[in-house]
Amino acid sequence: MELHILVFLCLAAFFAGFVDAIVGGGGLIQTPIALILLPNYSVASVIGSLKIPSFSGTLIAAQQYLKKVQMNWQLLVVMSVVAFLSAFAGSTLLTQVSNDFMKPLLLVVLSLLAVYTFVKKNFGQHQEKILSFRYQLIYAVIISMTVGFYDGFIGPGTGSFFVVAFVSILGFDFLHASANAKMVNLATNFGSICLFVLKGKIIWAIALPMAVCNALGGFFGAKLAIRKGNSFIRIFFLVVVVGTLIRFAYDVFK
Question: Hey, where are the domains in the chain?
Answer without folding.
Answer: 3-253
